[in-house]
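Exercise 7. Given the encoded structure of a 334-residue chain, write a plausible sequence.
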């Protein structure tokens, strides 16, 4: 046999061996991938909401396995699903912060004037095509409940004031309402966030006052009042830095138009114990004159004026102040 034919046989045999080996490896990897996809798909909620950016849970599971996509894109699944995916993929992780949908407009039919009588379809997007809706504030919520109709979890209901009310327990932060809102007045915020500005108007002064009783008219009072410099004016609206904000609620009570919202169900009040030395540091930081007392004498908190911000608690050098009436506040502000 010539050298030529020997070479062909040798190369052919080598190619065959390599082909068999590659086919075997591909089959093994395909099986492993398929099994992983099944496990991941089983761990996902199965609601196919699209919050991850893909058509459904099956596609997201496939992307995680084949493209090493991050496992933290399932907002509805929250911490529970994240931990399951982390275990399946063998990844150490810190749980994502849970989020919730929030309405950043307080101007319902009672607060915001109407420009004209709208007699069209009961869909925000249709009304939006009619000069941005019938409200005098062209930036605010249309109020026809499109967000409620598209929510797959029944977490949004419309109240009598034609404003969407979000059920904290049902909301999964899938983001569908946020994407569907024609006015961009629905956003996702951390579930633990209590205080935020609920106004999106880009007007200021008289232009706001003439159309809405709860609109921000750029007075800057909240910015000056914030002890943490968490608010800065951008355009005609104060923008809150969530990393600096402590949810003290001072901006809520200082705002002359009630443009801020406080999601806290209850606020504590300051109780001053006998350990008080009367140094007066608490009086200096209280913006609501809710503490009274003589120098070097035990001071007293005035419950009727106290908003439970916790500033006096932080300022007291001898820790004589307790925030009573709302569990967890003391730990959070310490």
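Solution.
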């Amino acid at each position: 046999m010539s050298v030529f034919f020997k070479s062909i046989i040798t190369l052919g045999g080598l190619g065959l061996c390599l082909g068999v080996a590659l086919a075997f490896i591909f089959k093994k990897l395909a099986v492993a991938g398929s099994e992983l996809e099944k496990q991941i798909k089983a761990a996902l909620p199965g609601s196919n909401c699209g919050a991850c950016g893909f058509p459904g849970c099956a596609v997201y599971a496939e992307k995680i396995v084949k493209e090493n996509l991050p496992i933290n894109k399932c907002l509805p699944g929250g911490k529970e699903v994240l931990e399951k995916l982390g275990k399946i993929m063998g990844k150490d992780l810190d749980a994502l912060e849970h989020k919730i949908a929030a309405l950043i407009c307080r101007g319902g039919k009672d607060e915001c004037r109407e420009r004209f009588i709208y007699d069209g379809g009961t869909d925000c997007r249709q009304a939006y095509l009619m000069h941005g809706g019938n409200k005098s504030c062209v930036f605010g919520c249309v109020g026809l409940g499109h967000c409620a109709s598209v929510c797959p979890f029944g977490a949004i209901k419309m109240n009598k004031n034609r404003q969407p009310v979000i059920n904290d327990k049902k909301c999964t932060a899938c983001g569908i309402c946020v994407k569907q809102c024609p006015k961009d007045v629905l956003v996702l915020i951390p579930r633990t966030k209590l205080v935020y500005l609920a106004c999106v108007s880009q007007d200021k002064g008289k232009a706001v006052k003439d159309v809405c009783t709860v609109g921000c008219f750029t007075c800057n009072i909240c910015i000056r009042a914030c002890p943490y410099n968490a608010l800065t004016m951008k355009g005609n609206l104060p923008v809150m830095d969530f990393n600096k904000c402590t949810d003290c609620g001072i901006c809520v009570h200082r705002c002359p138009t009630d443009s801020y919202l406080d999601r806290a169900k209850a606020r504590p009040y300051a109780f001053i114990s006998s350990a008080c030395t009367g140094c007066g540091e608490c009086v200096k930081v209280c913006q609501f004159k809710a503490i009274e007392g003589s120098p070097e004498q035990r001071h007293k908190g005035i419950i009727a004026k106290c908003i439970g911000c916790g500033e006096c608690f932080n300022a007291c050098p001898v820790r004589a102040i307790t925030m009573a009436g709302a569990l967890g506040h003391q730990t959070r502000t310490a």
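Remark. The mean pLDDT is 86. Students should compare their own answers with the one above.
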